[in-house]
Write a structure and sequence with these properties.
heterodimer, A: 115 residues, 7-stranded mixed beta sheet, 4-stranded antiparallel beta sheet, 11 strands, B: 115 residues, mainly beta, 6-stranded mixed beta sheet
Chain lengths: 115, 115
């Protein structure tokens, strides 16, 4: 079955540590996205990538970094500069070039907590 | 600036009764509109979208939504609620003129269907 796989499901970060969240898709989608979800705030866009080797900052990129070396993969690194990283992180992908109204498809998320 | 408002944090309805989850939006141009559902500790699942044409859009699991351009609304409806519909619902908008293809999400509405 095609889909988006996020790993790990739960992740704990120590002070001063960088952690990387994995996102892999086998949907052959061009665009990929990272969102942060906090209670009562909906989803906020961290980074997005519309093609390989290119990505743009979203609304809350500070303290995060990404790479897009392969079409299938869009890992997110939460750096030690992100002072409040505890949240539910969602990865999504979308088939581009089809009029812009294709929905985003989501993985099942990674819950990050501070130790 | 684009924005989405979901004015109700929670909607309570009895099983078998009709349900409505409200959404209003603000975009500078013409919108694409989406509804997603989220179950606990899962990603978002796409329910339906409005592109153009008929103002009543039908989607998955018996849900439908009514687009009202004059009121800038896109309310989600279902004629007969099920207990299994209890979940968190998100409305999202994309301005067709926005080349970033970013989605703007509302803060979410929790639907509770009581037996």
């Amino acid at each position: 079955d095609g889909g988006i796989t996020q790993s790990p499901k739960y992740l704990f970060r120590k002070e001063g540590q960088n952690v990387t969240l994995s996102c892999e898709q086998n949907l052959n989608h061009d665009a990929m996205y990272w969102y942060r979800q906090d209670p009562g705030q909906g989803l906020r866009l961290i980074y997005y990538s519309q093609i390989v080797n290119d990505f743009q900052k979203g609304d809350i990129a500070e303290g995060y970094s990404v790479s897009r070396e392969k079409k299938e993969s869009f890992p997110l690194t939460v750096t030690s500069a992100q002072k409040n990283p505890t949240a539910f992180y969602l990865c999504a992908s979308r088939l581009a070039g089809t009029g812009g109204h294709q929905p985003q498809h989501f993985g099942d998320g990674t819950r990050l907590s501070i130790l | 600036a684009q924005s989405v408002a979901q004015p109700e944090d929670q909607v309570n309805v009895a099983e078998g009764n009709p349900l409505t989850v409200k959404c209003t939006y603000s975009v500078s141009g013409n919108p694409y509109l989406f509804w997603y559902v989220q179950y606990p500790n899962r990603g978002l699942q796409f329910l339906l979208k409005y592109i153009t044409g008929d103002n009543l859009v039908k989607g998955s699991y018996g849900f439908e939504a009514e687009f009202n351009k004059s009121q800038t609304s896109f309310h989600l409806k279902k004629p007969s609620a099920l207990v299994s519909d209890s979940a968190l619902y998100f409305c999202a908008v994309r301005d067709r003129a926005d080349s970033s293809y970013k989605l703007i999400f509302g803060s979410g509405t929790r639907l509770l269907v009581r037996p």
